[in-house]
């Protein structure tokens, strides 16, 4: 999980700029770009898990010491919260501006052209918004998917509300597909505009841009502009302090059906906290939850709509599969490869929300997106209603040419990815080796041992130790229940805990030793 700033969703956004930290960057424009990008990345209400992008226009010196005007822009695969200088791709500015003059450009051709224009072949692929960043005639450019801004635009009168709040200070751009199409749209809209009169841009149903020749000014504009949107939305609606717990068996049944839909094992994380439980208890939850994602790029992680579980999970998942197939059939051009039909999040009516994924990291990302999405939906419902983009626009992002290309390159998954394993007696020896092997093959592993060493010997996001004596039936039940509750089931059991008593004649064996052997090797195993 990205180390995003910890704050309540919907609480007041803070300006985190520290002049001493900025001064430490010296005259290095890229270092300052890294610093302010990380400030943006720390605020989860601005960007989530790789979302958003930032850039700076600066000089690049090549191996011959020749100097080039470049756009340093966030590269693919980097997260703003943790980005470093190597995460910014240096792309020749003149090449990007030439690309902007094309009448049309496929995504694949754009990616190749941007890659060819890079001055560092070891850098990551530039953001698909590189051409747009190049067109903006300011040194520093910040782009986020701020919750408050997107929430406002995802209401029936969203554009009118945005214009009322910002007036002529921001350019308001109708929704179009990200990438070259968006860059071309902005170029057309700004042909006769004096950029110096603008503080930023609103991309309807997508996000917001701020820009300036000074890093601090661009960052501060972003914070101030988003704060205006937050103030327009007002306080988050109050919800009852209800919470809910999931039955291990019911959760396992849901996981089974979702895994069947995905044609591979899936994990599930249930959230019955106040926010999720309150949302799931709404009488209109089935309607408002299935209108579409907060911002189009979330569809890659969450699918367009969630699974709604009312009573029978089998019926719910079958309905989801059928609806997803119909959605694909309605919108495909006949050349696309359909993704799996499994949901990536769900609403368990009256209980809470669920995240589905093959890895714990997937669950964390989806869970974060869901938390921000339902908070946005609740606020939008108080301002005319939640109104996401039409399904055709969401489909276009979900089945983007660039995403489809990735399908052909997908590496095979580890043998036990998506499976849940429990290993007893795993702090050392055979149990330890089994736990490591399962973890390395992708399983989510819970390791039990009475030795406290079990808490410290494992290092990994998919393996965790728990102190537990298998002779204590209640402790074992609690450990199994917690493991199932965390990930939705138990698929693999390595019942390794045991002892080998010293050999002796039965008649001479101490009764206590006999009982100890039975308690651990037989009763504990059962």
Per the CATH scheme, the topology name of the largest domain is L-fuculose-1-phosphate Aldolase
Q: How much helix, percentage-wise, in residues?
A: 40-55%
Radius of gyration: 26 Å
| Shape type | globular
Domain module count = 3
Return the average pLDDT rounded to an integer.
91
- CATH architecture verdict of the largest domain: 3-Layer(aba) Sandwich
Structural class: alpha/beta
**Largest sheet, spatial ordering of strands:** 3-2-1-4-7-6-5
Which ranges are low-confidence, i.e. pLDDT below 50, for 5 or more consecutive residues? Answer: 1-10
CATH superfamily of the largest domain: Class II aldolase/adducin N-terminal domain
Distance between the ends: 37 Å
Oligomer: single chain
Q: How much of the residues is beta strand, in percent?
A: 15-25%
What does this molecule look like?
Mean pLDDT is 91; it is low at 1-10. Strand 10 and strand 11 (352-357) form a beta hairpin. With 526 residues, the chain is an alpha/beta fold. The protein is built from 20 helices and 15 strands. Helix content is 41%, strand content 15%. The protein has helices at residues 19-23, 29-41, 93-99, 107-116, 130-135, 147-153, 158-166, 180-189, 215-233, 248-262, 274-280, 285-288, 299-302, 313-331, 360-381, 391-398, 401-409, 429-440, 473-487, 511-523, and strands spanning 53-61, 67-74, 88-92, 140-144, 170-173, 200-203, 207-212, 267-271, 307-309, 345-348, 352-357, 420-424, 444-449, 463-467, 492-495. The strands form three sheets. The chain has a seven-stranded mixed sheet with strand order 3-2-1-4-7-6-5, with helices on both faces. Helix 6 (147-153) packs across helix 7. The chain folds into three domains: 19-233, Class II aldolase/adducin N-terminal domain (L-fuculose-1-phosphate Aldolase); 248-409, 3-Layer(aba) Sandwich (L-fuculose-1-phosphate Aldolase); 420-523, Rossmann fold.
């Amino acid at each position: 999980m990205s180390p995003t700033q910890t704050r309540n969703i919907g609480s007041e956004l803070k300006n985190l700029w520290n002049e001493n930290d900025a001064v430490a960057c010296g005259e290095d424009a890229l270092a300052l770009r890294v610093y302010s990008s990380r400030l943006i990345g720390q605020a989860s209400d601005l960007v989530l898990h790789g979302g958003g992008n930032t850039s700076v226009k600066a000089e690049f010196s090549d191996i011959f010491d020749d100097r080039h005007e470049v756009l340093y822009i966030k590269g693919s695969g980097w997260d703003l919260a943790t980005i470093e200088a190597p995460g910014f791709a240096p792309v020749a500015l003149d090449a990007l501006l030439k690309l902007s003059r094309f009448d049309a450009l496929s995504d694949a051709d754009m990616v190749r052209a941007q890659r060819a224009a890079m001055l560092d072949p070891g850098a990551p692929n530039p953001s698909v918004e590189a051409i747009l960043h190049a067109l903006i005639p300011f040194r520093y450019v910040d782009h986020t998917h701020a919750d408050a801004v997107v929430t406002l635009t995802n209401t029936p009168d969203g554009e009118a509300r945005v214009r009322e709040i910002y007036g002529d200070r921001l350019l308001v751009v109708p929704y179009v597909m990200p990438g070259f199409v968006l860059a071309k749209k902005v170029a057309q809209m700004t042909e006769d505009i004096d950029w110096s009169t603008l503080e930023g841009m609103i991309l309807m149903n997508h996000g917001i841009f701020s820009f300036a020749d000074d890093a601090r000014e661009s960052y501060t504009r972003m914070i101030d502009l988003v704060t205006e949107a937050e103030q327009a939305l007002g306080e988050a609606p109050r919800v009852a302090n209800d919470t809910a717990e999931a039955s291990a068996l019911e959760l396992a049944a849901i996981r089974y059906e979702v895994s069947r839909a995905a044609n591979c094992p899936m994990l599930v994380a249930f959230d019955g906290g106040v926010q999720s439980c309150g949302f799931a208890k709404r009488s209109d939850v089935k309607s408002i939850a299935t209108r579409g994602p907060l911002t189009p790029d979330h569809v890659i992680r969450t699918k367009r709509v969630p699974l709604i579980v009312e009573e029978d999970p089998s019926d719910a998942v079958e309905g989801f599969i059928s609806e997803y197939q119909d959605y694909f059939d309605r919108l495909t051009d006949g050349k696309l490869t359909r993704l799996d039909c499994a949901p990536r999040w769900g609403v368990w009516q009256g209980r809470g929300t669920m995240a589905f994924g093959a890895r714990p990291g997937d669950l964390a990302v989806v869970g974060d997106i869901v938390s921000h999405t339902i908070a946005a939906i609740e606020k939008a419902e108080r301002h005319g209603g939640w109104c996401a983009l039409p399904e055709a626009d969401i489909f276009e992002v979900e089945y983007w040419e660039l995403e489809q290309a990735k399908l052909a390159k997908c590496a095979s998954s580890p043998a036990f990815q998506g499976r849940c394993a429990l290993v007893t007696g795993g702090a050392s020896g055979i149990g330890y080796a089994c736990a490591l092997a399962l973890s390395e093959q992708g399983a989510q592993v819970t390791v039990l041992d009475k030795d406290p060493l079990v808490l410290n010997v494992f290092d990994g996001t998919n393996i965790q130790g728990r102190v537990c004596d298998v002779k204590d039936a209640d402790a074992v039940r609690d450990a199994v229940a917690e493991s199932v509750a965390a990930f939705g089931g138990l698929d693999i059991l390595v019942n390794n805990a045991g002892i080998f008593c010293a050999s002796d004649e039965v008649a001479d064996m101490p009764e206590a030793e006999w009982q100890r052997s039975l308690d651990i090797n037989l009763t504990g195993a059962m």
